[in-house]
Amino acid sequence: MRSMVLSATDISEIKEAIAYPKGIVIISHRNPDGDAIGSSLGLKLFLDKFGHNSKVILPSDYPGTFHFLSGIDQCIIFDHEQAKSKELIAAADIIFCLDFNSLDRVDKIGPFIQDSKAKKVLIDHHLDPEPFADYVFSDIHASSTCEMIHKFILDLSEGEKLDPEIGEALFTGLITDTGSFKYSTRPETYTTAADLKKIGVDDYGLQDKIFNTVTEKQMRLLGHCLANRMEVIPEYAAGIIALTKEDYVSFDIQRGDTEGIVNYLLMLQGIEVAAFIREQPTIVKLSLRSKGDISVQEICRNHFNGGGHKNASGGAAYAKLDDIVTRFKTVLPRYVNKRL
Ligand code: 5GP
Ligand code: MN
Questions:
Q1: Cα separation of 219 and 58, whole Å?
Q2: What band does 3 get if pLDDT is binned at 50, 70 and 90?
Q3: CATH number at 216-335
Q4: Taking the complete model, does pTM exceed 0.90, yes or no?
Q5: How many angstroms separate the CA atoms of 70 and 124, rounded?
Q6: How many whole angstroms separate alpha carbon 144 and alpha carbon 150?
Q7: Which one, of 104, 101, 95, 1, lies nearest residue 59 by Cα?
Q8: Which of 266, 247, 265 is nearest to 257 (CA)?
Q9: Cα–Cα distance measured from residue 77 to residue 142, given in angstroms and rounded to the nearest whole number
C-alpha cells in the first residue's frame, strides 16, 4: 500500500514558505465532518501564529455541533460566498487541501484550485490520492487528517506553537474519525492524543460537546431508522437503513442530523457490512461501513461513484432509492462470502 511522506526537502521548503505572512487558503471537502473542520481550524490557528491571516474555505456548510471550535465562525462557505472564495483562491500563495483525495470532493471549487498559481499542499488519509498538488502528504494508515496535521507541525519543528485551542481542533478529528478510538487507530493515534492532552485539551469536555448534544429530533430520527427503516441480511452479514425523501420532510432532516446512524448497524451481532442509504432532494447518498477485510471502498468505487477508506466509504448516485438499495444487495455477494 502507498504511503507518501513529505521529504526533508519538502519540509524545509514549506517551512521557508510559511515563515513570513502570505496569502494562505485552507480547503476541505464538502459536507465537512469533524476531521475536515478540526484539521482546517487546527492548521489555521497554527499558521496565524506566523502572522498569516489564513482563510478556511469549505464547499458547503458545517454541522452545528462544531460551533464551539475557535475560528469556526470565520470559515467561508463557498456555497454562500462564491465571489470572495474565488478571489481568495486566485490570490493565494499557498493552498492547503485537507482530508480529501480528489478535486471532485470539493465540488465547484475544484477548477479554481487547479487554475490557481498557488503552491498546493495536500494532507490526507484517504485511499488513491489524485496527483494534483505540488506537495503530497498522504498516509492511508493515519486515523485522521488531524493526526497528520499534528505530525506535520512536529516535522516543521514547531511543536512549541501547539496550544489548547489548536489541540481541541485536532482532538476533534481524532475522536470523530475513530468513533472515540474504537476503530482506525494505530500507536501514533494514541501518542497524538496523549500529546494533545498534555498541552491542555479537555478531552472529556470535548467528547461531551461533540457526542452528547444530540437533539430530540435527531434521537427520534434514530429511533425511526432502527424501528422502521432497518433491514438485516444475515446470510451476507449486512444491515441496511434506507431513508426516503418523505422521511426527510416529516423529520425535517437537516445537515448533520443523520451523522453516526450508520454505525448502529455494526453493533448488531454477526453484522460486518453496514449501508445507510438516503434519498436526498436531487441525489441518493450512501454511507458504507465494514469490519475487517471487507472493503467498502471497492464497493463505493466500483458501483456508487465514490470512495474513502477500506472500512468507511461513501458514494452517491442519481437514481431512485429502491434501485440503489437493489444495486447494493445485488453486488454484495461479490464482496462478502455467504454465511452458512
Ligand atoms: P460518510 O459516509 O461519513 O459521508 O463518509 C465516509 C468516508 O467516505 C469519508 O472518509 C468520506 O470522505 C468518504 N466519502 C463520502 N462520500 C464520498 C463520495 O461521494 N466520494 C468519495 N470519493 N468519498 C466519499
Ligand atoms: Mn478524515
A1: 27
A2: low
A3: 3.10.310.30
A4: yes
A5: 22
A6: 10
A7: 104
A8: 247
A9: 27
What is the per-residue pLDDT across 74-92, written as a single tens digit (0 to 9) for each? Answer: 999 999 999 999 999 999 9
Cβ neighbours of 148 (radius 10 Å): 27
pLDDT in tens, 285-327: 999 999 999 999 999 999 999 999 999 999 999 999 999 999 9
Which helix (H) or strand (E) is 56 found in, with range?
strand 55-58
The cell for 89 is: 483562491
Non-local CB neighbours of 152 within 8 Å, separated by 6+ positions: 6, 43, 123, 137
The Cα–Cα gap between 35 and 39 comes to 6
CB 239 within 8 A of CB 233: yes
Q: Which three cell numbers stand for residue 158?
A: 514547531
Which of helix, strand or coil describes residue 297?
helix
Kindly give the number of the ligand 1 atom that is closest to the alpha carbon of 315. Answer: 19
Atom of ligand 1 nearest to the CA of 287: 2
Rounded to the nearest whole angstrom, what is the distance from the C-alpha of residue 253 to the centroid of ligand 2?
Answer: 23
| CATH class assigned to 8-211 | alpha beta
Q: Of the ligands numbered here, which is closest to the C-alpha atom of 170?
A: 2
* Digit-coded pLDDT (tens) for 156-198: 999 999 999 999 999 999 999 999 999 999 999 999 999 999 9
For the chain, the structural domain boundaries read 8-211, 216-335
What is the tens place of the pLDDT at every residue in 238-273? 999 999 999 999 999 998 899 999 999 999 999 999
Per DSSP, 294 falls in state -
Best mutation site among 33, 105, 107 for ligand 1 pocket (most ligand atoms within 8 Å of CB): 105
Hey, what's the cell of 189? 493515534
Nearest CA to ligand 1 atom 6: 313
pLDDT digits (tens, 9 = 90+) for 81-140: 999 999 999 999 999 999 999 999 999 999 999 999 999 999 999 999 999 999 999 999
